[in-house]
Amino acid sequence: MSFWKDRRVLVTGGSGFLGSRVVDKIQSKSPGPAEVFIPRRKDYDLVGYDNVLRVYRDAKPDIVIHLAAQVGGIGANRANPGKFFYDNLMMGTQLIEVGRQLGIEKFTAIGTICAYPKYTPIPFKEEDLWNGYPEETNAPYGLAKKMLLVQSQAYREQYGFNSIFLLPVNLYGPRDNFDPASSHAIPAIIKKCVDTMREGRNEIVLWGTGKPTREFLHVDDAAEGIVLATERYNESNPVNLGSSMEISIRDLAEMITRITGFKGRIVWDTSQPDGQPRRCLDTTKAEQLFGFRAKVPFEEGLRETIDWYVKEHGFTTSLRR
């Protein structure tokens, strides 16, 4: 209960979609931290080593939770493979190295389901992480993140550095990224359905065949899992964070069209890639090691996300009548 008491906590990406929830959960703890330091990208570009040194100097952290990342959907990964690799690798490895030099108490690194091999057996078990190459469209991003696991394990072995590595599935929820150039499946489909209805059109185009499956975790559940792991888990073996629910992109699209009230036609653009064929995690270890289990029912979370988008953009709720 006193884990956070008087601690100084650095949360990179702390103003973002996931990070803001993690910060809220930490700040709600009683007894709580002395300070939660949230670096802004305009002030601290953590790709640069000098900025990493400066953020440690300014935050003086006991604990670091590294959430900042260059992320996006299939399109963004295809357009920026070099940037996604370099930026994510440099941010993570430098933050860990400087944290090790300064003797911080704990480092929580957030990986990605994209680190798993393209043809991982379902459900994905942590032991399968090295049994093949990631799906090509997001391999540079996935491999850059996976290097933080290698570093975490090497630094624990050589220096006794207390770092952990978590592997969350695709997140969703209110305040998600709805930018068509970089959004993931759920916000992209929601935006297309709602915007198309508002504009009086009756057709949306979605990438791929709709056959691949995905697993989704509500952002509030993900934040809870990260906070629990930071409090209770002290090993460098990777741990999955997910809901253990698998759904095809086609079924997801049909669910979103039903909830939004979109009655038009879905066109599947099969000239565009599907991405990894299937994704679904084994989440046994998260529950065993630090007591995490996802709580938000998927359709309930989806409705909440759609309601937020409709309200945020000033659309009438009659769209879904």
Task: Describe the protein's architecture and organization.
The longest helix is centred in the first third of the chain and has 22 residues, at 81-102. A six-stranded parallel beta sheet has the order 2-1-3-4-5-10, sandwiched between helices. The protein has a two-stranded parallel ribbon with strand order 6-9. Helices cover 41% and strands 14% of the residues. The protein is globular. It has helices at 19-27, 49-59, 74-79, 81-102, 139-159, 185-198, 219-232, 249-260, 284-290, 298-312; strands at 8-12, 35-37, 63-66, 106-110, 163-168, 170-172, 203-207, 213-214, 216-218, 239-241, 247-248, 265-269. The chain has 321 residues and is of the alpha/beta class.
List keywords for this structure.
disordered C terminus; 6-stranded parallel β-sheet; two-stranded parallel ribbon; globular; about 15% strand; about 40% helix; about 325 residues; 10 helices; single chain; alpha/beta
Chain-wise SSE layout:
Layout: E1 8-12, H1 19-27, E2 35-37, H2 49-59, E3 63-66, H3 74-79, H4 81-102, E4 106-110, H5 139-159, E5 163-168, E6 170-172, H6 185-198, E7 203-207, E8 213-214, E9 216-218, H7 219-232, E10 239-241, E11 247-248, H8 249-260, E12 265-269, H9 284-290, H10 298-312
Parallel strand pairs: 1-2, 1-3, 3-4, 4-5, 5-10, 6-9, 7-12
Antiparallel strand pairs: 8-11
Helix pairs in contact: 1-7, 2-4, 4-5, 6-8, 6-10, 8-10
